[in-house]
Amino acid sequence: MSEATGDILNSFPAIQIARSFHLYDVRGVVPQDINPNTAEIIGAAFVDEIVAADTASQEQAVVIGRDMRDTGEELASAFAKGVRARGIPVIDIGLCSTDELYFASGYFGAYGAMFTASHNPAKYNGIKFCRPGAKPIGADTGLFAIRDQAISLVRAHFNAGSLLADMRHENVLDRYANHLRNQVDLGGINPLKVVVDAGNGMGGLTVPAVFDGLPIELVAMNFQLDGSFPVHEANPLEPSNTADLQQRVVAERADLGLAFDGDADRCFVIDERGERVNPSALIALIGSRLAVREPDAVILHNVITSRFVPIFLATQGIKTVKTRVGHSFIKKEMEEHRAVFAGEHSGHFYFRDFFGADSGLLAALWVIAILGSSQQTLSQLSSEYDPYFGSGEVNISVDLAKSARAIDQVKNALADKWGGETLDEETIDGCTISHWDTEPQWWVNIRPSNTESLLRVNVEAQSPDVLHQVLEQVTKAIVPRERG
């Protein structure tokens, strides 16, 4: 090991920075991984590697927002100090949802930094970055360059010094709300009763502003901003976190329910019976409506989306493209394919006319517009787009160093059970093993988490019995041998 390498590895801030950078965002525990010191350094490194290097940008500025986490204000302020010390002005929009930050990036033509850890517990925080127009920054588009420059600054004993640029404060909530409403034709829709669980996250701020003036009777749950998440985790992907909302929708005899994650960029939908609507059904439902606006429309979906989505959209003459999970990857693919819409089974929905960014509230408005213009209930509408049976995401704790071996164990177990010659394998994102062209129809995707020591497993099948058999084979292949 060289002396220089040793210096870096022995520098605790450098280690903190290195372990908090992931494939498409910065995320870690405060203050062990992320703290004001590292945030300030990352702010300067962001300017060095991204802002200053972009000669195409005429009026450079960085817009900064934060969610309701207790640590957000201090971290955002420190990051802004690092940016301003490099001579770049800051536009502080304060408390906001992640999609509101993306709107501000597009509106001001500014670089963006959103302080959030999304659905992670209260002890976490992080940063999502974008270029002007909400263009994503991920591992292969500059994020790791920011990391490396930040580590270099640590080694050089970084000191921000004088603040060479100003910071101004802007409230963009009303402009953001108007922009979302203008994206969807909500004229003449039937009045709807909607229960919304904001999970004590940023939906508590943005939902009332966006719903203002619409024919909606809003029943609010957990709208108080509270980064300690006193009621439940702000992670609607986990069914237990929507249980109260499901019961409330039935009790209120509401038309639908909406659940948002902490930074309100994801949305899950509950029908009038109190049942969770499959996000894949929403991709097909919203995507088909968006695609009729123009010929040769392209829609993206991630690898764990239901097989029904590409099958159905193909019958409508709509081209689909499969992509890997992660907002930075999907936004890049949207631009390359000029896609009008993209959806992830995790509840992220991306819109070309919203700067190619994801917005949980814009997806919710589309559901409201479709339901409000229909004579059917939401359960009737969504059932047409949900003919198969899915496991949802099953997370299995695994040492990520052993994840490749675990996936090989699954492949061998499934080949033994179903016949290896009948299986197809795909490696766009993790490993997808498919038996879809032969009865009984099923597929399974297994991929290591980008942020946790987990294997994420998703299974879809033609029947509940087949689903159970496949999931049982997968879990038996992973769990006993990993414990041994």
Describe this structure in words.
The chain folds into four domains: 3-171, Alpha-D-Glucose-1,6-Bisphosphate, subunit A, domain 3 (Alpha-D-Glucose-1,6-Bisphosphate, Chain A, domain 3, 3-Layer(aba) Sandwich), CATH 3.40.120.10; 176-270, 3-Layer(aba) Sandwich (Alpha-D-Glucose-1,6-Bisphosphate, Chain A, domain 3); 279-383, Alpha-D-Glucose-1,6-Bisphosphate, Chain A, domain 3 (3-Layer(aba) Sandwich), CATH 3.40.120; 390-483, 2-Layer Sandwich (TATA-Binding Protein), CATH 3.30.310. It contains 16 helices and 22 strands. The chain has helices at 3-9, 12-20, 36-51, 72-85, 98-108, 143-155, 173-182, 203-211, 243-252, 279-291, 308-315, 327-337, 360-372, 378-383, 403-418, 464-483, and strands at 26-29, 62-66, 90-95, 111-115, 124-131, 135-136, 167-169, 192-197, 216-221, 256-260, 267-270, 298-302, 319-323, 341-343, 349-351, 357-358, 389-390, 394-397, 424-426, 431-434, 442-448, 454-461. Strands 1, 2, 3, 4, 5, 6 and 7 form a seven-stranded mixed sheet that branches. Strands 17, 18, 19, 20, 21 and 22 form a six-stranded antiparallel sheet that branches. A hairpin with a 3-residue loop joins strand 5 (124-131) and strand 6. Helix 10 runs parallel beside helix 11 and helix 15 packs across helix 16 (464-483). It is globular and about 65 Å long. Residues 1-6 have low confidence and may be disordered.
